[in-house]
User: Which sequence fits this backbone?
């Protein structure tokens, strides 16, 4: 029994260490992109980027930055769609959010964690969030899903 | 079932019960006979507090609380100790932040202790003054004497001004309690009762908080078994430090005898293990003077890289510099905000409305919010902060516990030098500080790679 426990501990320790190393390796590949793109998908992770200003500090900064990260994700999803030229932006946004009301990008996320928090000199705090793709799937809508013909 | 069988069962049960009771009695007796009650010292938590207390009592021969000292040597001074656990999630990616958070809480606790001591001192002084009749003829509200007192008060030293304002509040309370003449022995007795009430004590502590300018870290002790650790801060306040804080915020006269070395020479160098240990246990901001006698602040910031990689170290050191810079703004603004309230005060209400520290919970979030407000409050323009040095260390707690520690400095001459002033430190030659540092053997602790303990540089004894 004791041996089993020791084995389990060693096994799980290795698992978590392996996961961490994988995360580090994948983060290294995307770190030059995340601040600019605000959202990056690597082989095994989703990386989200959120910002808060010092003025927001009285509130829960992680919460506000997380909300901002989800907004950035929405923008990423919006820009992925090949929109018909005849639609103005206001209409596109209405359609997009109506679609998301019925079909959220993901129903819930599991284990979203703060990977890095960075204070910038201009009183902005940037937070990089990560969650794994094994337990979470983001369902990005495409043109056809919105009922349009993809002309791109 | 026959009567014989029933009798047998009853007898068996009775016998078993008897045997059990005898056994229990024997065991109980044995327990009392063998195990002597003992009280063991709990040594698992707060060991840094013991180290700090030993340092204060045995090494410095000081008391925790008020220490009396002759005026020629700087007058009385207060010493207090605050302790906090270091909460980190074993990932070591946030180890530097967790240590900094623990320092913030411990420092807040030591400040609260000071406020309590100072409040008690104010109360005692007021009661004694009234008993001795030195507050025998208070001016009547609304009279020209009262107006004169109010005008004169701006020239009072801080302690006297505070006591006068509290005395005026006490007179009011006495009148409300039916004592028209606050100078009678009966009124003095009643005053002693009023001053001890919860509400009045709160008011006194709010006022005492406004004497905190100049309170600063004297020394930091830290200990960890590799999983759980704690930090204790020895805080110190003296009239001289208060005057230096005054000089810092208002440009007043600098107290004589304060250090006059270039700021660069007041931070640890990086040549020996002892020097590196001094970096590791240096936190927050502290007042000093530079080589030209300008009131100055030296500040240390800590930040951990996400992992061991050049880019992450660069980010961590930028974070450490920013953090150290923000502590200067916080430290200077905190002093200036209290000084401003004291200058403006015409009654104790301003202190009650602007008391912060005593109401602050020892939670990282609350402290950070308070600091954030101070950082952006703009009482003092802290432009022109100069970068002094930084160091990248692997903490003895774990090979994964990496930290960049940065030191920055600011002096009041930079206040007028403008935002773009980027001072190049010409006097960067490294001179080993004379201060003897009592340090435990860091190398010995490093061998197992988990537990560690250490202490910061001791602040200058000239306070």
Assistant:
């Amino acid at each position: 029994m004791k041996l089993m426990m020791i084995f389990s501990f060693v096994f799980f320790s290795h698992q978590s260490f392996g996961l961490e190393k994988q995360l580090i390796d994948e983060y290294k590949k995307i770190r030059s992109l995340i601040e600019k793109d605000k959202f990056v998908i690597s082989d095994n992770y989703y990386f989200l980027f959120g910002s808060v200003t010092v003025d927001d500090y009285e509130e829960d900064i992680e919460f506000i930055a997380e909300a901002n990260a989800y907004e950035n994700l929405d923008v990423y999803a919006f820009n992925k769609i090949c929109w018909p030229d005849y639609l103005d932006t206001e209409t596109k946004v209405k359609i997009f959010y109506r679609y998301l009301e019925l079909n959220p990008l993901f129903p819930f996320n599991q284990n979203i964690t703060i990977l890095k928090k960075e204070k910038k000199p201009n009183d902005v705090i940037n937070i990089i969030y990560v969650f794994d793709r094994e337990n979470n799937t983001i369902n990005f809508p495409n043109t056809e899903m919105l009922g349009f013909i993809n002309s791109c | 079932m026959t009567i014989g069988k029933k009798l047998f069962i009853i007898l068996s049960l009775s016998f078993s019960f008897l045997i059990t009771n005898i056994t229990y009695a024997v065991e109980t007796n044995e327990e009392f006979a063998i195990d002597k009650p003992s009280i063991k010292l709990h040594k698992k938590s707060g060991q840094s507090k013991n180290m700090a207390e030993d340092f204060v009592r045995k090494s410095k021969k000081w008391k925790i609380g008020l220490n009396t000292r002759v005026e020629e040597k700087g007058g009385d001074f207060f010493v207090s100790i605050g302790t906090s656990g270091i909460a980190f999630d074993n990932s070591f990616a946030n180890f530097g932040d967790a240590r900094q958070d623990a320092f913030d809480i411990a420092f807040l606790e030591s400040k609260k202790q000071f406020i309590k001591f100072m409040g008690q001192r104010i109360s005692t002084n007021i009661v004694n003054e009234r008993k001795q009749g030195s507050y025998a003829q208070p001016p009547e509200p609304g009279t020209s004497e009262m107006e004169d007192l109010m005008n004169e008060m701006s020239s009072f030293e801080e302690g006297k001004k505070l006591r006068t304002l509290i005395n005026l509040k006490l007179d009011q309370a006495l009148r409300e309690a039916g004592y028209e003449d606050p100078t009678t022995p009966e009124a003095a007795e009643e005053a002693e009762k009023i001053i001890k009430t919860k509400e009045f004590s709160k008011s006194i502590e709010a006022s005492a908080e406004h004497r905190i300018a100049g309170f600063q870290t004297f020394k930091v002790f830290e200990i960890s078994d590799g999983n759980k650790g704690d930090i204790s801060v020895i805080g110190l306040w003296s009239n001289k430090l208060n005057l230096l804080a005054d000089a810092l915020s208002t440009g007043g006269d600098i107290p004589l005898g304060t250090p006059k070395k270039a700021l660069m020479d007041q931070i640890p160098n990086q040549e020996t293990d002892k020097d590196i240990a001094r970096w590791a246990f240096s936190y927050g901001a502290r007042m000093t003077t530079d080589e030209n006698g300008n009131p100055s602040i030296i500040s240390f910031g800590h930040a951990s890289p996400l992992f061991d990689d050049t880019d992450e170290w660069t980010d961590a050191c930028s974070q450490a510099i920013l953090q150290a810079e923000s502590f200067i703004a916080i430290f200077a603004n905190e002093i200036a905000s209290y000084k401003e309230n004291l200058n403006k005060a015409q009654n104790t209400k301003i202190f009650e409305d602007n008391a912060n520290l005593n109401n602050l919970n020892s939670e990282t979030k609350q402290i950070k919010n308070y600091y954030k407000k101070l950082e952006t409050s703009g009482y003092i323009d802290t432009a022109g902060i100069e970068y002094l040095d930084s160091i990248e260390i692997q903490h003895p707690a774990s090979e994964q516990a990496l930290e960049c520690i940065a030191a920055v400095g600011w002096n009041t001459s930079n206040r007028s030098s403008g935002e773009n002033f980027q001072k190049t430190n010409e006097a960067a030659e490294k001179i080993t500080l004379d201060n003897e540092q009592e340090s435990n053997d860091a190398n010995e602790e490093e061998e197992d790679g988990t537990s560690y303990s250490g202490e910061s540089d001791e602040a200058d004894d000239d306070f």
Notes: The first strand of chain A starts at residue 39 and ends at 41. The interface with chain B takes residues 20, 24, 27-28, 31, 54, 57-58, 60, 115-116, 118-119, 121, 123 of chain A (CB under 8 Å). Residues 2-132 of chain A form a domain with the Thiol Ester Dehydrase; Chain A fold (CATH 3.10.129).
